[in-house]
Structures are given as C-alpha cells and as structure tokens.
Amino acid sequence: MSFFVRQGDQLVAEKLAVSPWAPGKLSGTAVCGLLARELEAYCPDGFVPARLTVDLSQPVANAAFDMRSNVVRRGSRIAVVDATMVQDGRERVRASALFLITGDEPPGQVWSSAEDLPMPPDGCVSPEGSPPLFKSGEREWTSDFAVNQNAARKFSWHGLPPLVAGEPLTPFQRAAILGDATNHVCHWGSEGAGYINADVTVTLSRLPIGYELGLRADNTIAADGISIGSATLYDRSGAVGTCMVTALSNARRQIDFATTAATALTSESR
C-alpha cells in the first residue's frame, strides 16, 4: 500500500491518494505529502524543517503534474524554499518551507502547555499503513467513524504507508500528510464534516520519531463560513509541533461519516 506508484517518469495515484468525494482529484493529504517530498530535497546539512505552508488554491486533478521549486534564501541559520504543482501550464497549489539550523537550548525556563497527549496501546496501527484511530472526549480509541461523529474534542492516531512505493516515508513527509488531517479533528462535528481546507501550515520543533503520529484538536474558531482549526502534532515521545488549517464552509457537500464509509484521512482540498 502507498499513496503513489511510479510508472516511468510519472507518479500515478493509488486509491489512498484520490479524493473519495471527487474521484478525479487528488486528496489534500497526498498533495501536502508530495510538496514536502519536493521541498525537503533542499534542506541543508545540519538544518531541520521548521515550517511548511501549503496554499490549496485550486483542485489538483488525478493526472500528470510537474513540480517546480526554487531556493528563496539560503543563509547560515535559515533557508526558505518554494515549490508549486503545475498542471496544463497552470499553478494549482504552492508551498513554502522554512529550514532552520539546530543548536543548543538557551538557558532559563518558559511556560508550555502540560495538557495530556493520549496514545493508544502499542501495535494498534501498522508501519505499513492502517485505518486511523479516533478518540472523542473520554471515549476509547476506535476506528469506528460513527462512534466519533459528535461535538466532543477529537484526537487521531495514524500509521501511514509510503508516499511513493519503494521509497521510505520520511518524518517530514509524515508530518506534512498529517497536517492536512487537522481538518478531521477540528471540523468534524455532530453532523459530519462541513469544511474544506484552503491552506495547511505545519510547524515543527523537531522531526517525528517512529512510524506513529497523533493529532490533538486544540481550538476551532468559526464565523460566516470561515473556520480556523489548530491542533498539536505528537508522537510517543511527546509534542512535535502544531498544525493549523484555514477552511471554507462546504455545507452543500457535508460528509456524514455516520452513514458514509470513510477511506480518506481528511476532507479534499478546495
């Protein structure tokens, strides 16, 4: 299982990379993963990815595409790289990555949140990829979507397959894919999911460790059909970073997960 397979010089989408609500389009999770894959090739030695922002301004068709990238700045402590996905000569989505050099922590103490980061037992998800687990409020972890269709705070836990068959999934790619899934923990309520991502931002203080990765919904702020969702990204060692999505109301295509089999990690991009 993977998101894409190689056919010659092209990457061809597998079922996991295709939007379940628009079979002719790629899912936002797949698009974010591909852009991270393109951008991390420019990460200088001694640097780590600290931020990825993806503008999902147009749908990406399930068809051939080109990647274009350029280094915006390369300094001694910071590097910025941009990338775009192009189809039929048109820019579909764009992304920017910020890479920072690592170093010693400064002296002193600062405040940080001490909220719990719940984790299911070891072995609940597979390193080869398996359906995500969800937890709503005080309920137990489960892959049953109907049980989690409520207004309680949500958590999700994931084991992801390779982005491209034959290539190991890198920690940065894993974080990018999960960034798009922020929509699923922040905008999935008692009547289903009614928002689609217009952008995704993932910030990282370190790269994820291991093959498991979780999301904890932290806040949702909505007015007049525009909503901001923020979540904590974490692994079994603790918090890794934060994810934020800006989303648009899509009430006419609201997804009722209590009656609709869900095969994707999150809503399709706009």
Residues in β-strands, percent: 35-45%
- SS summary, helix count: 3
Average pLDDT reading: 92
The portion of residues assigned to helices is: 10-25%
Which ranges are low-confidence, i.e. pLDDT below 50, for 5 or more consecutive residues?
262-270
The CATH architecture name reads: Beta Barrel
- Overall 3D shape: globular
Order of strands, widest sheet: 4-5-6-3-11-14-13-12-8-7
> How would you sum up the major sheet?
10 strands, antiparallel
Helical/strand content category = mainly beta
**Total count of strands:** 14
Considering the protein shown, what is the CATH homologous superfamily?
Acyl-CoA thioesterase, double hotdog domain
What is Rg? 18 Å
Q: List SSEs in N-to-C order.
A: EEHEEEEEEHHEEEEEE
Just give the CATH class.
Answer: Mainly Beta
Write down the CATH topology: Porin
How many structural domains in the coordinates? 1
In angstroms, what separates the terminal alpha carbons?
26 Å
